[in-house]
């Protein structure tokens, strides 16, 4: 058997290479990768703008697949099971690993991001305890598990409670999924801001009662108490981080889900001056995955509408370019890995 993957060889340069056909260790399962989602962080890495994900790796951390082989200590999964993978590989020994926060492991490796080749590959083996069975969820919905878990983690990092008024900055996949999670959690009000009309419309189609605005129309009178109770920043550029700082009510909380540039010109003076609580949110843990899978099973909103394009494996570079050149029309793009 042979294996192939799209190597990020250099900035804006993806090359199809032969990768080793994976061995299956005792505690691993071998997957035939079926769908892999293109994430904002894959695009950042492709453009050479990601602070931590660098060329020299096969990208892809959002993937679903079918079990085609397994190690002898794997008892809870069978050949033929459909699986979504939690891509974080952790040491299990550091302070945060032993205190339930392995998403911020000291030695964190993320499949398709740091050291281990990812899902833009035909076959991959992963530890069985990183796999979740999705036999009862359509694959084109289950492929959203990873970004949905990011959104869930962000909301769980916050002090959100039913009846709160929230501001969400950015209507990309993470912004819209954060909107959905909050929408299903009984907020008093959700205001979503983004410059792109079509992206706002997509969010509004899924979550009817939210308020969507362009940045120029954002103002604190949209909220009943001088501003939002919590602001979720889901972009990561200086402009949007400063927007979060500007519109957050004094003394309120900002959750940073977007990945900022390495050197940021965010106006920290106002964090101090307005006693804002700025909190970072990175990835997720198993609990977030379980909540994400539960939400996808309940299917209260039309999640599949977020997937606007499906590309075959041979057209991965074209998919990357098209998303970057057409942000209005391309939302979540997935690769059908077994189709050439
Ligand atoms: Zn992702
Ligand atoms: Zn660790």
Task: Describe what this molecule looks like in 3D.
Helices cover 24% and strands 26% of the residues. It folds into 2 domains: 3-135 and 302-336, Alpha-Beta Complex (Quinone Oxidoreductase, Chain A, domain 1), CATH 3.90.180; 149-280, 3-Layer(aba) Sandwich (Rossmann fold). It is built from 9 helices and 18 strands. The longest helix has 13 residues, at 145-157. It is an alpha/beta fold and 340 residues long. The mean pLDDT is 97. It is globular and about 60 Å long. The structure holds zinc ion (2 copies).
Annotation field: number of helices: 9
Helix/strand order:
EEEHEEEEEEEHHEHEHEEHEHEHEHE
- By oligomeric state, this entry counts as single chain
Looking at this structure, what is the CATH superfamily of the largest domain?
Answer: Medium-chain alcohol dehydrogenases, catalytic domain
* Average pLDDT taken over every residue: 97
The ligands found in this model are:
zinc ion
CATH C-level name of the largest domain = Alpha Beta
| Portion in strands | 25-35%
Span from first to last CA?
A: 17 Å
Runs in which pLDDT lies below 50 for 5 or more consecutive residues are none
Domain unit count: 2
Largest sheet: 7 strands, mixed
Structural class: alpha/beta
* CATH-derived topology of the largest domain: Quinone Oxidoreductase, Chain A, domain 1
